[in-house]
UniProtKB/TrEMBL annotation:
Gene3D superfamilies: Rhodopsin 7-helix transmembrane proteins
Cell compartments where the protein resides: Membrane
Domain G-protein coupled receptors family 1 profile span(s) in chain numbering: 50-315
Transmembrane segments: 34-59, 71-92, 104-129, 150-171, 193-218, 256-280, 292-310
Keywords: G-protein coupled receptor, Membrane, Receptor, Transducer, Transmembrane, Transmembrane helix
The protein, known as: Neuromedin-U receptor 2-like
Gene encoding the protein: LOC116305780
Transmembrane keyword on record: yes
Amino acid sequence: MSSNHSTNYSTNATAINNTSPSFTGALAPEDIKLIATVFFSLVSSLGTVGNFLVILTLVRWVDMRTPCNLFIANISFTDLIVSLVMAPLRIIEQHTGGWIFGEVLCYVIAPLQDTLASASVLSHTAIALERYRAIVAPFKPRLNKRKVKISILFIWIGCYLGTSFPLLFFVKHELRNGVTTCLASQFPKEDRYIFSLYLVVFFILIPLVCQVCCYIMVIRVLRRKDAIQDHRESTSTTAEIQIQTSKQRVRTKKRLIRMLVVLMLIFQLCYLPRAFIMLIYEFARPLTTHEAFPYVNISTMLLFYVKHVINPLVLYCMSRDYRDGFIGLCMCRTLQDFSLQAVPESGKKSSNKTRL
């Protein structure tokens, strides 16, 4: 992160976490403070409720604890921490202008932001790899719940050691111009360049390429399976119910992949612009003096935080399992109640659910 910015508890290493850009435009400082307070309050409240519902749904209903859902829960957990901790800190920063939580929390929270971002990235990548294994290579060993939990543990350990731990040696809790700050201000310039490139390559580019390749291959396989089912339906004498069951299974997988791709695209659209701003600060600093840059800066900051609110909305709109789970939690009902309601007059259960 750039050291000339007003985010006193963010790191110098990555502009992704610098979410309080200096903004000298048409709006007065008091207007900026009001807008920031309202925005981060909405992020905190909506993100906390939405992501807590996602996690509580999986806690409440054991049948939904599939490998894919457990990784989704891990993403919701990172979003929940941002909503509960990081967003309120932004509000406090707007009104205090400095770090008021002491030296210990400085060393905990400043590096933690990079861990949260990278854990979300790797969780999305793990979901893509898991779907690739399940659809493209279904005969490979399955990923059970125990292996998923171990994978999530390694994601957190790896992200902390790979992104946050190096910053601990450079974070300083000190008094500057009468204001207490929490900055990685001692990060050597050359090392900062290397560290920024390292973050971009290993926690942005490689995961993004991996996710895109996995979903492209998954979509191709599903389309091929759909075409095979259509061909069998037109030529085979197999019982109609068996053919329809196979086709419904393919359609269900398609709905799931569609939802996961939407989640991935939303994450990347909210995440990549902030990463681009990081590169500008480190390698194209003259561009930050352009009159339009503060608007671009604050826009990418808004996108970065909006991401922590959107996932529960996507799950509610695109997954009947989560939708039933959310409603069931609010109305103290069970998923079996919804299953009974979904039984049509023919006596066969409806298969509109998007099983994860």
